[in-house]
Description:
Elements lengths: L19 E5 L6 E6 L2 E4 H6 L10 H5 L5 H4 L3 H15 L5 H4 L3 E3 L4 E3 L7 E4 L3 H11 L16 E3 L5 E3 L4 E2 L2 E3 L10 E3 L3 E2 L2 E7 L18 E8 L2 E2 H7 L7 H4 L2 E3 L4 E2 H4 L3 E2 L19 E2 L2 E7 L6 E7 L7 H9 L10 E3 L14 H4 L7 E2 L5 E2 L7 E10 L4 E14 L3
The site of manganese (II) ion (MN) has 6 residues, from loops.
Amino acid sequence: MSSWVPVPDGSDFPLENLPYGSFSRAGEAPRLGVAIGEQILDLGAVARAGLLDGTVDEPVTTLGAPVLNPLLAQDHAAWARLRARLGELLTAGAGAGSTAGHLVPQAEARMHLPFVPGDYVDFYSSIEHASTVGRIFRPDGDPLLPNWRWMPIAYHGRAGTVVVSGTPIRRPMGQRRPPPDETPPFGPTQRLDIELELGFVVGRATTLGEPIPVERAADHLFGVTLVNDWSARDIQNWEYQPLGPFLGKSFATSVGPWVVPMEALAPHRVAAREQDPPPLPHLRLSGEWALDVELRVDLAVDGGAPEEISAVNARGLYWSAPQQLAHLTSNGATIRPGDLLASGTISGPDPGQGGSLLERTWNGRDPLPLASGARRTFLEDGDTVTLRGWAGGEGTGRPRIGLGSCAGTITPAG
Ligand code: MN
């Protein structure tokens, strides 16, 4: 398949991807668009031209919105009809005459938060991440706590501080663990870290008291975006017992500007790793639900060039997104359109596959040497972290389904 819109080799955004975002040009209000090559198709404009009739309910209102939430409120059949129609309009030989006027160059666009997060839940679904963190903090115990293999462990995060890629991240203040019998210091975190994650954007509200069965969970999964769950390890370490992470996590969470439809990633679903013991019936899932998505972390320091510091594939995650959603609602809790379910830090078995600096430096014990000659344990002011992700592409014989990038630069504590 090819599009009449030029798609350069290696682009994240061929016709097979069509991720959704919210964009504006200078002086314009944010509005929804779909990425194709180096362009964005203005969805509201295409809807007003009558070209999306019969796809979603109220196409002009739904797609003329500044965020995805009205679309997320509809069902997966509507999402599929819209995606199919957009594919038709952008396929070579069709539609150029009617839609070419509604393309905006990405180079001219500023990207905004693509959805208003309803609730934000951060899971802990990588067994390598959970095990390594266990070894760092509990060297004499079992790396995994007894509950870990029975449920996707999670905490409720702060939806209101989810920000879009490019938003500066101010170094948070907080309390740190004091020496015995001393007063805890309050000041800028000294252990500012990243967490490389995938975020699943959820749609279609449920009714209080009615769980989503695991085999229906996929109907509520709209798409995937990159997530950097910035973490202040020293604040987290002092506050997290007994009720879990709080201010060490809530100061900011970055998401990518593009939400890639689950349907675009369908060809990249692979068999998940074996779960031992088998999950309880309400979490038992057939079908292939691991995502063969390559992930990278780039770090740029002192205004220098970005340098790759971590490389891992998401297919190794122990718990899948449908299992996370089934678990989240298994007590009858509802979901709302725009809820964000993050995977938790994604790490692999090798040291270079750690999705956090905590793991890459063994909690600061082993500084990372960088090509520039600099070394890092945790982040310093002025550092820029960029997450990237993609499925398929060069060498796979399949179109590249890119997630784009998710970046943030650390600014000094205020
Ligand atoms: Mn996290």
